[in-house]
Write a structure and sequence with these properties.
The complex is a heterodimer of chains A (334) and B (96). Chain A has ten helices and twelve strands. In chain A, strands 1-5-7-8 form a four-stranded mixed beta sheet. Chain B has 96 residues and is of the alpha+beta class. Chain B is 32% helix and 30% strand. Chain B has a four-stranded antiparallel beta sheet. In chain B, helix 1 runs antiparallel to helix 2. Classes of the chains: A alpha/beta (334), B alpha+beta (96). Strand 1 of chain A pairs parallel with strand 5 of chain B.
Chain lengths: 334, 96
């Protein structure tokens, strides 16, 4: 099962028999059986035939629209599952409840521990750089998590930890052609930030899909507060995966020199930096490979791919909120 | 659905009439990969297989046409040797 990425501008997405067919310039450029598809992502502008929309809904395949630079626009997805018990538990835990505090602790701990893991590994690999100060800062943010029972303070710890991590992100890049000074969004104005933003958009498509399969309401989160049209729960569950999936792909792409400055273009007015169509293809492929790579899940004790882990974590979250387990274990990898 | 749970099927067909053969070819393209003239490799769940079989069954004339489904176990499927021709397609990502 795979995800279809359509980045050809002005492509026509239609249906032939039980297949998705993408046409451009009157030629078929892609023809895939629908049974092999688990998600469709359109980057930029494309025409989607009405038959495709109803067929995708019928088969519970989400269709996500991103701008060509990867900014999230929205998605068309089937009815949320009928599992009312999951949603009920989710709503009952809303606000400053003990469960909400517990899961927020989990999300923040997961993210920061994975950040620390990236830094300590980098530190081990090369003795010429000194990350110990930043690692200490991260540890200072991690240590009080379990004794902090206030969501706003937990947000503060997350911020402090992220600041420490992004403060030395540049030293994780072993490629003289790329520099990172600080995290910039809307729009990202340098290649590294642009890759990070693009990666997080792709991750959001995947995590939101997993949340829907499990039966959650994606718009009610705990770490991220409610805002109109913001899938807060997807953003919550994304936290622990950001370093594991996106940051890891971005770093390996840059460090293995799979992209060069020539793969990026700058928009003259806003200074927004984005990938060229060729560069985008390269990055999409690397992201997909990462998603399909296997690791041993520390809680389940068996091999799984990141793609499966999105759903596994969502299920663990549901189990906790419904009172079937004592704890929510965030995915932390050594 | 994990790949291990899927049936691995080689489908071959022999249909003298062009129009009907094209139709069969089109249906099979929605379920698997075309590897040679009149031969497809498919990985299907029980339901998908049942649906495919019933669609084909409705279409063919049993006295002149024939379709065969050869099932392979997962480890035999991995051992298929291919010289030239279509290689298995990467199904984790599709680009356009």
């Amino acid at each position: 099962m795979g995800t279809v990425y359509i980045s050809q501008e002005d492509a026509f997405i239609g249906k032939i028999d039980e297949r998705l067919s993408v046409k451009f310039d009157k030629k078929i450029i892609l023809d895939v059986p629908l049974i092999k598809i688990e998600g469709v992502v359109v980057l930029g502008r494309a025409t989607v035939s009405p038959a495709v929309i109803s067929e995708l809904l019928e088969r519970s395949i989400p269709l996500t629209f991103l701008t060509e630079n990867g900014r999230y626009l929205g998605r068309i997805e089937p009815e949320v599952t009928k599992n009312i018990f999951v949603r009920k538990a989710q709503w009952q835990a809303a606000g400053e409840s003990p469960q909400a505090i517990h899961v927020v602790q989990g999300f923040v701990r997961g993210k920061l521990k994975n950040y620390r893991q990236i830094l300590t590994r980098r530190q081990r690999e090369s003795s010429d750089i000194d990350l110990s100060k930043k690692i200490t800062q991260l540890e200072q943010a991690i240590a009080p998590i379990d004794t902090t029972h206030n969501i706003n303070s937990l947000r503060g710890l997350e911020g402090a930890g992220s600041a420490a991590y992004f403060g030395c992100f540049n030293q994780l890049i072993r490629n003289a052609e790329f520099q990172f000074s600080h995290r910039l969004r809307r729009p990202p104005t340098d290649p590294v930030n642009s890759l990070l933003s693009f990666g997080y958009s792709l991750l959001r498509h995947d995590v939101q899909g997993a949340i829907n399969i499990v039966g959650f309401d994606p718009y009610l989160g705990y770490l991220h507060c409610d805002r109109y049209g913001r899938p807060s729960l997807a953003l919550d569950l994304m936290e622990e995966f950001r370093p594991l999936v996106v940051d890891a792909v971005v770093l390996s792409t840059l460090n293995k020199q799979l992209l060069t400055p020539a793969d990026f273009i700058t928009e003259p007015l806003s200074g927004a930096v984005s990938l060229t169509p060729e560069g985008r293809k390269t990055f999409l492929r690397l992201y997909a490979q990462k998603k399909q790579s296997e690791f041993k899940h520390p809680v389940m004790g068996r091999k799984c791919t990141y793609q499966e882990a999105f759903e596994l974590q969502a299920r663990l979250l549901a189990k906790y909120l419904m009172g079937e387990t004592e704890k929510y274990p965030p995915l932390v990898l050594k | 659905m994990k790949d291990e749970l899927k049936k691995k099927v080689i489908v071959s067909y022999d249909v003298p009439e062009d129009k009907r053969r094209t139709k069969i070819h089109k249906i099979l393209k929605s379920y698997g990969q075309w590897v040679q003239y009149s031969v497809f490799e498919c990985q299907l769940t029980e339901t998908q297989y049942a649906k495919l079989r019933s669609r084909l069954h409705k279409l063919i004339k049993p006295d002149t046409d024939s379709i065969r489904f050869y099932f392979l176990c997962a480890c035999c499927f991995d051992k298929i040797e291919r010289i030239g021709g279509e290689q298995p397609r990467d199904e984790s990502i599709f680009f356009a």
